[in-house]
Amino acid sequence: GDRKQIYANIDQRVDGMMRMGLLEETKTLLARGYSKDLKPFKSLGYSQMVNHLEGNISLERAVYEIKRDTRHYAKRQITWFKRVSDAVSLPIGETPARLVDRVLSFLPTLAGWALCAVLALPPGAALAHPSTYEDGVKFFEKGDYPKAIQHFEVVRRSMPGSLEARRALYLAGKIHAVLGEDRLAEESFASALAEYPEIEDYIRFDLAKVYFNLGEYGRSLEQASLLLEKFPGARLLPKAELLRAEVLVKQGKTGEAVRVLEQALRNFSSEPRDPDFVPYIPEIKFKMGDLLETAGRLKDAYAVYRELYVRFPAMPSAGKIEARLQAIKPDLSPPLSPEELAERVQKLLADVQYRRAADEINRFARTSGTAPLPDNLRFYLASAYAGLREREAANKVLLSFAGAHPRHPRVLEAYYLIARNYWNLDDAARAAAYFKKVLAAGPRTEWGVKSRFYLGKVYESEGKPDLAIKQYAFLTDFQEEHEFKETAAWRPGWIHYRQGDYEKSFARFKSNWEQNPNGQLADLNLFWMAKSEEKLGRGEEAERTFLDLYKTYPFTYHGLRAKEKLLARDPGFEDVPALKSSPPPMEENGRADPDLPREETPHYLKAREMTAMGLKENARLEIHRMEKEVRKNLSGSLWLADQYHRAEAYSESFRILDLYRNFKTKKNQKELPVRFWKSLYPLVYPEVIQMSSRNHKIDPFLVKGLIQQESMFEARSLSRAGARGLMQLMPETGKRIALSHEGEKEFAADFLYNPETNVKLGVKYLGELAARFGDDPVNILICYNAGPDVLKKWRDRFRDLNDPDEFLESIPYQETRVYVKSVMRNYWIYKNLYSDGLGRLNPGDILP
User: Fold this and answer.
1) HSE on the CB side for 447, CA within 13 Å?
2) Beta-carbon contacts of residue 368 (< 8 Å; ≥ 6 apart)
3) Which of 129, 134, 411, 822 lies at 20 to 30 Å from 731 by C-alpha?
């Protein structure tokens, strides 16, 4: 009876494996390049599928052989089992899953593993191998929980006691919790508490939430309290305090819950404040307001909501806060004071909510009875209008202020802003008039320095080079340091170059570089010095200058552009060893550095485990908490960046390395090793970038360089303007391309957060631009940043410029000019790091 039942279960299981995709799974693995000679393909199930796919046997025969061989294996195990003393019979009628559990409870370990492999594993998994856990994590990240659970069960049964088994146990608990299977989640987390001490604080928090969902509030409070007691530095503290408050409310102790939150706020707001806890302050305050409102303490609740309304207008629950305020006091009395409104509006402007800021100030002006509008609110209103590109309205506000207060300390600022608005409206005459007003009243003030620089730009646009140079000379002669000093020294050289006076331009650029070889514009001066030499017919000197530029500043736009020019002259140009620097000194190399956290450091252990489990946001936050423990020397920066990279926190990795790159200065960046540059310019999402680029005939290295600049490879990146994802596509652009070119029937803005979707649509858009404007990457990037209409306008305006370097330097929008240079720099660095010399990815660099 037992044998027949087991045979029936085997047949049922094999049929289920086929229905769940064993054949398709085998096809997929072979198509991805895995060799049929690998051990997993020799196992029961896979081997028969491979045999069928090679045409040696029919599918029916393959299924029959799987069932036959499985029966033979089970028969041997049962025969052995019956020879064991004290054998126990199993009842017929058990489900396959229950039968497995019953058999495993009686068999010795090895026999248990064998029957587990036969009866309980997911399709295609005869025994767990290293990829089983990793595949389970991938399914977990995708939200395919049934397949994830199957894989984790394999790991737990066939790799007991391993780190992977402990991770699988915890993730199983997470899945059960998400699916509302709280008792199963409790069982998993309770077991994990004993087996997985590295993340005890996370397990206790998850257990607390499970008990809360089950209505077992005492046990929930016990777990939250234990977490707070045992882990005072845990990043989960704010969440634990919020959960404690929720539990106390359920227990009818609302007053105590409020006191818990008040104490938490005092702890998280006191100096020195923990920066990781500060973002939770608005959420805790909102919860406190909710509890006070529930308890009938409406006056206190109103005060909390009002504070949130003023101080945190951009928080996710801002809409709810306004609704609560309206529900308690529809007239929002007393009205906001000018100081409160100023604080609120400042936050709205920082969040790019220009229209709302303008509307609220104007409403205040109509209803407050305060006349005139306070000075700071006038400036905020002008800023809001400027942000909305309503510059005439902005100037109306500023002119009103200046007319009413001609001796006010901020009147020079008002004149300067008025002039800038006129300049942006292409009204050079009125812009110049207001810049001169500033200079007449305060030539050496902050606003005087700014006005002098932009007056020079106005004179350039009006074709008055001598007057422009005179303004720049004033700025370079200033003893005090200011933001325009290097640019003011460079612009006369540019004016001479555009006038065709190359001797003067050469002399000016040379002088600038010699006086400040470590300056921010050192490479720019050296580049145009070489260009001037070209114009003067000094070819050999120009070539030497370009070579010096590349050797001295090999990771800047102008250094890399010099290399491109040298290659254009001589395709056999031998690259200098800019990317072959020696490794850093031994004391700064690798884990041996005593300044790096020890492997048993709690936050390091948690970060490692969270990364391995696909809980990347938790990993990022744990790494951030240990960041202050790491010295930011070369090895420390590389180590931290690597931790962030593993957690897919690419923007954090970039932040760490970019700080160190800037610390080295442009001239000394060439000393950094290749490892540093490959960390700063990583290969992320290589497969979809390669495929999409090939489909639309776009250089994949250009795509990588663009993504680096747009989002730093953060798939969830969202700009203040609403651009989303890796390539920062606006929803309307993504929708147009998806519906018209990709054959999709529906589109939602959040689709752009999917890396594959975003890259496919973004590269398709680049292909469109290339088809319209040619393959020149500079034109494509101008369109991508400023729009096709702007490119058309500039090409018409500068149609006399045949030199691409002159055209790029003449772009009026500084943002676009910097953007194009940055992406091109990234593009060339990617090619230098990863290209095989023919523009193709090095085989050894296929995977990130």
Assistant:
1) 21
2) 335, 338
3) 822
Q: How far is CA 181 from CA 186, 204, 318, 582, 671, in A?
A: 9, 17, 33, 56, 56
- Out of 304-313, 378-387, 569-578, 756-765, least confident range: 569-578
Residue 228 has pLDDT above 60, yes or no: yes
Provide the b/e sequence for 463-473 (b: ≥16 CB within 10 Å). Answer: eebeebbebbe
Give residue for tokens 């002399």.
507
Asked whether residue 809 is domain-assigned, the answer is yes
Task: Report which secondary-structure segment, H or E, holds 85.
Answer: none
- Backbone dihedral region for residue 236 (phi beyond 0: left; psi -120 to 50: alpha; all else: beta): alpha
Residues 676 and 701 in one domain: no
Using 50, 70 and 90 to split pLDDT, how confident is the model at 47? confident
In a domain, 292, yes or no: no
Adjacent-strand bridge partners of 146: none
Residues 819, 740 within the same domain: yes
Of 5-14, 385-394, 838-847, give the lowest mean pLDDT range. Answer: 838-847
At residue 699, what is the residue type?
Answer: D
Condensed to tens digits (0 to 9), the pLDDT of residues 417-445 reads 999 999 999 999 999 999 999 999 999 99
How many domains does the chain contain in total? 5
Query: φ, ψ for residue 724 (rounded to 5)?
Result: -125, 150
Look up residue 75 and give its amino acid: K
**What's the DSSP call for residue 713?**
T
443 and 525 together in one domain: no
Specify which residues 718 forms β-bridges with: 724
The pLDDT confidence band at residue 360, using thresholds 50, 70 and 90, is very high
Closest among 442, 357, 443 to 394, alpha carbons compared: 357
Q: How far is CA 689 from CA 46, 599, 681, 765, 780, in A?
A: 32, 35, 15, 13, 17
* Same domain (yes/no): 668, 769: no
| Residue that is last in its domain, among 483, 507, 537 | 483
User: Residues 715, 791: one domain?
Assistant: yes
**Considering the domain boundaries, does residue 771 fall inside one?**
yes
Which position has the token pair 């390539």? 727
Whether residue 574 has pLDDT greater than 60: yes
Distance CA 476, CA 325 (A): 55
The DSSP secondary-structure symbol of 464 reads -
697 and 815, same domain (yes or no): yes
pLDDT higher than threshold 90 for residue 71? no
Q: Are 690 and 735 found together in one domain?
A: yes
For 446-460, the DSSP string reads: HHHHHHHHHHHHHHH
| Amino acid (one-letter) located at 424 | N
- Contacts of residue 35, defined as CB under 8 A and 6 or more positions apart, other chains included, come to 41
Residue 560: give its domain's CATH number.
1.25.40.10
pTM of the model: 0.81
Q: How far apart are CA 386 and CA 374, in angstroms?
A: 19
Each residue's pLDDT tens digit, 326-347: 999 887 778 899 999 999 999 9
167-168-174 Cα angle (round to 5): 95
Domain with residue 791: its CATH number is 1.10.530.10
More confident residue, 696 or 269: 696
Q: Which of 25, 56, 89 is the last residue of a domain?
A: 89
Q: State residue 718 phi and psi, 5-degree precision.
A: -135, 120
Q: Are 439 and 521 within one domain?
A: no
For residue 24, the enclosing domain spans 1-89
For 487-508, the pLDDT digits (tens) are 999 999 999 999 999 999 999 9
Q: Give CA–CA dist 726/709, Å, rounded.
A: 10
